[in-house]
Design a protein that fits this description.
Elements lengths: L5 H4 L3 H22 L1 H10 L20 H6 L15 E5 L7 E5 L1 H17 L7 E4 L7 H13 L2 E3 L6 H11 L3 E4 L1 H13 L4 H4 L4 E5 L5 H11 L2 E8 L4 E7 L6 E3 L4 E6 L13 E7 L10 E7 L1 E2 L11 E2 L4 E2 L4 E3 L2 E3 L1 H9 L4 E10 L7 E8 L9 H19 L4 E5 L14 E3 L4
Parallel strand pairs: 3-4, 3-5, 5-6, 6-7, 18-21, 19-20
Antiparallel strand pairs: 1-2, 7-8, 8-9, 9-14, 10-11, 11-12, 12-15, 13-14, 16-17, 18-19
The structure holds 5'-O-[hydroxy(phenylacetyl)phosphoryl]adenosine.
5'-O-[hydroxy(phenylacetyl)phosphoryl]adenosine binds next to helix 6, strand 7, strand 8 and strand 12.
Length: 436
């Protein structure tokens, strides 16, 4: 498979590390001079830019947290005057103010470059027609893919999210070969095709799907690939770093290559902040090495994964991160037991008869223990006509499987087709009523 920028993506690791160290020293000096936001942080930690000479010195620098960025909202951490900022994006965030991303002209150029690398890694070329159903607007997904597709010369269809029925028509009429959206929305598209009597696999030419912006397991990947008849690639990114374009799977699907010449990754122990070696699971931390408007230093993503540095068969020398395993703050504590949402998804999708649409509800009725309830849709055949005996069996099977894998009891409520809310973008999987 072609590589967009072989020089950068297949560089010898020692040359790459040399480049990273040079860029790190520069960016640390840059942010220190350019914004009181970092000057204050570095001063408080007793570290000066000249202390940062090698990659090992990185650990001397203080972390930047989501709270730090909130405190600086909206532009307090920018390193260029607003006249040099040519684009703003933001991530919705579930509570309070959004997280802002600001881009200079050069930052947009960098974003275009990493997105061109990204789509090329998934086999996209100028011959492709890319149906881009990520949201256009403040969210980085739509415009991020847009510029990457244009750079490689593919034909981009900027359809954005919504009007799902129309999307099915356009995908078929335009002969889309690439689909980009959240993994959950890809299933909404498949369902709408079913509703319209359109056989997605037979009528659509889509061969590649590039899905991300929300957690999804390999079990979910299987479901999507089978239903849509395409090869699904996982893409990761976040507004604070650049948007999509931080890391991408290659054709070997053995982790996501991080564009390390621009985004320097670390894994830390979320409890102690200690740096962990390759192969160990922890919290992903990024330092942007080349951004101008809004560089971030040691940004704690709260996403949990593992890094691997051995060479990949695709030829890229870039570090690979495993599929995101969850967030440091999404672990549910149910009656004192740690429960990971990704494990719930995995378990449900291994039970035959359940559909990949579910919601996790946590509640604590007054003076009682936590209750974990899982709403999940059963295949429509159970409802035509309704077969309560079989539904009861299916529910018991799901509850038993969950009890075994989670180590805590969850009640399962089986739902009819299309009864769990669908999302155009990121799916809302967890409803925690205990905080209300
Ligand atoms: O979701 C950027 C993006 C757009 C990525 C399109 C991929 C495709 P935010 O809205 O700032 O940015 O959300 C970032 O979403 O910290 C993760 O928790 C989560 N996330 C993003 N990609 C993945 C993924 C975009 N592939 C936050 N797997 C991140 C799991 C993901 N979680």
């Amino acid at each position: 498979m072609p590589i967009w920028n072989p020089e950068a993506e297949t560089m010898e690791r020692k040359d790459l590390e040399k480049l990273q160290a040079e860029r790190l020293a520069k960016i640390v000096e840059y942010v220190y001079q350019r914004t009181p936001f970092y000057k204050r942080k570095f001063d408080a930690a007793g570290v000066k830019p000249e202390d940062i000479q090698s990659l090992d010195d990185l650990a001397k620098l203080p972390f930047t947290t989501k709270q730090d960025l909130r405190d600086a909202y909206p532009f307090g951490n920018f390193c260029v005057p607003l006249e040099e900022v040519v684009r703003i994006h933001a991530s919705s965030g579930t509570t309070g103010k959004p997280t802002v991303g600001g881009y200079s002209q050069n930052d947009l150029e960098l974003w275009t470059e990493v997105m061109a690398r990204t789509v090329t890694a998934c086999g996209v070329t100028r011959k492709d027609i890319a149906h881009n159903a990520y949201g256009y607007g403040l969210f980085t997904g739509g415009l991020g893919f847009h510029i990457g597709f244009q750079r490689v010369g593919a034909t981009v269809v900027p359809v954005s999210g919504g009007m799902t029925r129309r999307q099915i028509m356009l995908m078929e009429d335009f002969g889309a070969t690439v689909l980009t959206c959240t993994p959950s929305y890809s299933l909404v598209l498949a369902e709408e095709a079913d509703n319209l009597g359109v056989d997605f696999k037979a009528r659509m030419k889509v061969r590649v799907g590039i899905f991300g912006a929300e957690p999804w397991t390999n079990e979910m990947r299987e479901k999507i690939q089978n239903r849509l008849g395409l090869e699904a690639y996982d893409i990761y990114g976040l507004t604070e770093i650049i948007g999509p374009g931080v890391s991408i799977e290659c054709e070997h699907h053995n982790g996501l290559h991080i564009f390390e010449d621009h985004f320097l990754p670390e894994i830390i122990d979320p409890a102690t902040g200690e740096k962990l070696p390759y192969g160990e699971e922890g919290e992903l931390v990024f330092t942007t090495l080349t951004k101008e408007a809004m560089p971030v230093i040691r940004y704690r993503t709260r996403d949990r994964t593992v890094l691997h540095a051995d060479k990949c068969a695709c030829g890229r020398t870039l570090v690979r991160m495993e599929k995101i395993r969850g967030r440091t703050d999404d672990m549910l504590i149910v009656r004192g037991v740690n429960v990971f949402p990704s494990l719930i998804e995995k378990t449900l999708l291994n039970v035959e008869g359940l559909e990949p649409h579910y919601q996790i509800i946590l509640d604590r009725p007054k003076d009682q223990l936590d209750e974990l309830q899982i709403l999940v849709e059963a295949h429509h055949s159970f409802f035509e006509p309704i077969d309560t005996r079989k539904l009861d069996q299916l529910r018991d099977e799901a509850e038993n499987e969950l009890a075994q894998t989670l180590g805590v009891r969850a009640t399962v409520k089986l739902m009819g087709p299309n009864s769990i809310e669908r999302s155009l973008g990121k799916a809302k999987r967890i409803v925690d009523k205990r905080e209300l």
